[in-house]
Amino acid sequence: MRVVQGILGVALILSSFVMSVDAGAVTGGSSEGNTVLIDSPLLITQYMGTNDRLEYIEVYNDSKELFTLDGWTAQYTVEYATSSERILLNIELSGMMEPQRYITLADASTGLQTPFLYTISGGDTGNVVSVSLIPPSGKNYLNESVANPSYSNTSKTNQCNDEINTGSASKFALKRKTSMTTGDYLSTFCYLDLKKESPRVFIDDLYTLPAVLTLEIVEILPNARSCSPFVKQLDCLDYVKLHNAGTVAMELEKYRLRSGSQGQTATSSNTFRFSDFIAPGNYRTYQVDLSNSGNWLWFEDSYGLESYKLTAVEYPSAGTTHEGQAWMYDTNDGEWKWTSTLSGANTAPVYFQAETETPSLGGGLQPCRADQFRNPLTNRCKLKTASSTGLEPCGAGKFRNPETNRCKSSATSSSSLTPCRVDQFRNPETNRCKAIASSTGSLVPCNANQTRNPATNRCKSDVSLANALKPCASNQERSPDTNRCRKVLGASIPAANFAVDPSPDELATNTIGWISFAAVGSLAVGYGVWEWRREIIDGLAKTAGVFRK
């Protein structure tokens, strides 16, 4: 048994040794022996040169994250006919590249506007052997190196189009191919025909932190009420309302809104991004998914490198008692409180002026302006004129509205109304001038053949009266109901000079009627006799028997 255990132990030791050797072989002999090198997210996507002088190198960040260039170097080597390979360029990179963006390293003689310029004397006859990006020491990235294909490119397979390269052997430009289906970069390159097209170089700015943030959180609704899917009201969704207290528009894509507390990392559920902008002094409401048990909200730059602590706002637990209510700042007493009065998505009352914050100052507060004071609770600058005791007096002819605290023109009072004209009087209900001629005492008299209708106060022609009607004809009379003429009917019908004889048609009709009646009656009697023939025969037989007896 012990022998078997010893054999198994030796086998385990040998297997672990073999695995360690294989790991070293996979890493390509790295100093640490067990570090697996991975492909760099930086890709050389295009470069151009003449002889041994490389004019530019285009680099692309193929990752979805912000990438630091500190410690990376770019270099290229040249092979000459009379000597061995030489490194002509070794330039250090620095800064941060945003995802899916480009930087370009260029010779100063090209005139390209890029932060990475170099100067190469060159000009000799030689071939560029390789172009490389070297990672910093200690990073587990592979070198990003591309080899220059042969200058004698006579095959269409290496062309970026269907034409054969007709450029000279000393001038070359290559770019990385892209997939026809996904658009992603491939590992192969193709030649550009410099006689038919000019290379297009992409140069994006390096990432820098936004200098100033003038956004402030002024209203939070963390526990929306349950609404029908067809109801679109402000309190049916969790939201946060933002205000731009600065003098320039704020591009929200440069920032992200975070929710959470100390020590929590950014995730898709507690990080919110917005792609539009807010004009100076404007408000904008955004739908976000918030916790109704209370939390913190604050702003960071879009990659979370800097947190703007002056934007941080804590809201308490909403619970069922504050369902559909918003946690908002009240300028009347400088306190945050719950409210059921929600404003529109892009409008809101004036809350307060917030100080701007410069990240490079380490979060230090800037002094408030002369017309402002610092709120000890929120540490924000607030206008001194926000209180009613410090309001400027209204001008001449104006008074202050006690509800809105705004100046209003005194000309709106009735005592300052423009006097009505001589032919007008003021209506006490509408306070407007009305023509005196519209009253009944000043009506124009009706004509001689007219009378005034007391209901409508209008003149009406007298021809409608019965005593002014046109006389009816001698054989007519006037109807008392319609007041119209109608013919007079005689009291009796005069006797005729001859007897009234029946018309031939009437005699013929009467004869046909009687014949038809007799025929139908005969048929009915015959049908009855036929139907009851047995009963009739039996009845006659019984009657005859009686008489016989």
Structure overview:
By secondary structure, the chain is α+β, with helices and mostly antiparallel strands. Among the domains are: 42-191; 215-366, Immunoglobulin-like (Sandwich). Helices cover 13% and strands 29% of the residues. It has helices at residues 2-26, 504-531, 533-548; strands spanning 42-50, 53-61, 67-68, 73-80, 86-92, 96-97, 102-107, 116-118, 126-134, 144-147, 171-178, 185-191, 215-221, 239-244, 250-251, 255-260, 271-272, 277-278, 283-287, 295-301, 307-315, 326-330, 335-339, 372-374, 381-383, 398-400, 407-409, 424-426, 433-435, 450-452, 459-461, 476-478, 485-487. A 6-stranded mixed β-sheet has the order 8-7-2-1-11-12, with no helix packed on it. Strand 1 (42-50) and strand 2 form a beta hairpin.
Secondary structure blueprint with pairings:
Blueprint: H1 2-26, E1 42-50, E2 53-61, E3 67-68, E4 73-80, E5 86-92, E6 96-97, E7 102-107, E8 116-118, E9 126-134, E10 144-147, E11 171-178, E12 185-191, E13 215-221, E14 239-244, E15 250-251, E16 255-260, E17 271-272, E18 277-278, E19 283-287, E20 295-301, E21 307-315, E22 326-330, E23 335-339, E24 372-374, E25 381-383, E26 398-400, E27 407-409, E28 424-426, E29 433-435, E30 450-452, E31 459-461, E32 476-478, E33 485-487, H2 504-531, H3 533-548
Parallel strand pairs: 7-8
Antiparallel strand pairs: 1-2, 1-11, 2-7, 3-6, 4-5, 4-9, 9-10, 11-12, 13-14, 13-22, 14-19, 15-18, 16-17, 16-20, 20-21, 22-23, 24-25, 26-27, 28-29, 30-31, 32-33
